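From the shared-data thread, chain only:
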Amino acid sequence: MPQITLDATMDTYLASDTPESSKGYATTFYVGFIAPNAARRALLKFDLSELPAGAAVTDAELVLYTQTPATGGYNCTMNVLMWTDWEDEFARWTYRSEDSPWNTPGGDYYELYQKPFNLPTTTGPFSIDVAALINNVRSWGRTTLDLILRRVYEGAGDGQARFLAREYDPHAVQLAVTYSVPASASTAPAVGRSRINGHRRRLRIGSTQRS
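Structure, as tokens:
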């Protein structure tokens, strides 16, 4: 089946302890919680327009690179954001763009469209299955996948992980997608941003931890 690898077009994180501070230019981002009130939630955006019209995603993995693992595999969830107009340059705990606030501080997301995962406990590549979420948003007519990653319980228990951002390396945050196409459509794979001269350039060291 055709495959494509897409680099994130935006990434950042929201921090409840610095609610008016944007982290869009940071070279790393966090998911987790540090007591007493520091919740950290990551935002990621991918452009799905390179997938052929009518293609059905059969397998897709979000691949991150863990720089600092968590001390335990804390329960987390990845949800589809309600908004697609957020901007990593300006997004913060209270605002999704320079002038537009979140309805709820910390990000607005769909509870129904989510994927549970555990924080990684080792350094290196870390992957999460997102095929269902991609098919969900494409069925709505969206051309981007907009995600928020957060700990399920943000009230107590220090635990967070730090990941490399696209500002550190353009290929540090990726989607690896396998899809099928109708017989009437072209089966030639689209060319992702992370393919250079037909070869995939990837920042990957060692084996991948999966959630």
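DSSP finds one helix and 14 strands in the chain.
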